[in-house]
């Protein structure tokens, strides 16, 4: 067992499961604090992605452990494989590979749901504010969709042992494809799987995130409020605040003079600069997030 095998098939799944558990704990905390926010924002699809990725990594790790145990058991001549063991191994291969394919497909399509939510929040903010059960219903529909179209794996995946490959009875077996099924049928199923669960959602993610990114970079994408807007706002709000606080007449005269205008202008400038910095920082974070999504989607197509 070389170092690359250990890193890819053992260290990476364990590290990924640990990170996903941390993210899941943070999302559950958000759900406990504000259930409506959890249901109507990107937290719910992200939680679905986290659970799906964790199950996929756990299935991959169990596949490695099963393969290592099977190789060690193959050299033990005193424990030949029985029919019951072969049946259990066959069921394990079917369920394990089905879980890996289904959860990875569900995670990819959940990522598309996040892109659609970003698109809706930017171009249809009123509709985004009225979202209630649509993300939950979409995830339920996607889960049924993935389970249905990945059900072919339950018929194709089998446990292949040494006798089927022309080797000795105690040669190590592995999870593979049923050779009794026609090769063209298996290739068609794989092509459908790649197209439906990788190519199509990746193209759609690039489309939606690209539109949002173009809108963010476009000079007409965001409307910058002029400084006079803040001046007018504070000119209106300050006198009302002064009236409600019932200050003295001398203070009212002082604020009604030139000092009032200087105070309004300085507060407007400070507020405008502060909000411009916050808006610029928010736009940079949003653009970097969308760029990462587009980059990963493009890499999935390669």
TrEMBL record:
Keywords: Membrane, Transmembrane, Transmembrane helix. Residues 19-143 form the G-protein coupled receptors family 1 profile domain. It is found in: Membrane. One of its GO terms (cellular component) is membrane. Pfam families: 7tm_1. The chain crosses the membrane at residues 6-25, 46-66, 108-126, 138-161, 196-217. GO terms for molecular function: G protein-coupled receptor activity. InterPro entries: GPCR_Rhodpsn, GPCR_Rhodpsn_7TM, Neuropeptide-GPCR. It comes from the Eukaryota. Coiled coil: none annotated. PANTHER family: CARDIOACCELERATORY PEPTIDE RECEPTOR-RELATED, G-PROTEIN COUPLED RECEPTORS FAMILY 1 PROFILE DOMAIN-CONTAINING PROTEIN. This is G-protein coupled receptors family 1 profile domain-containing protein. It comes from Mesorhabditis spiculigera.
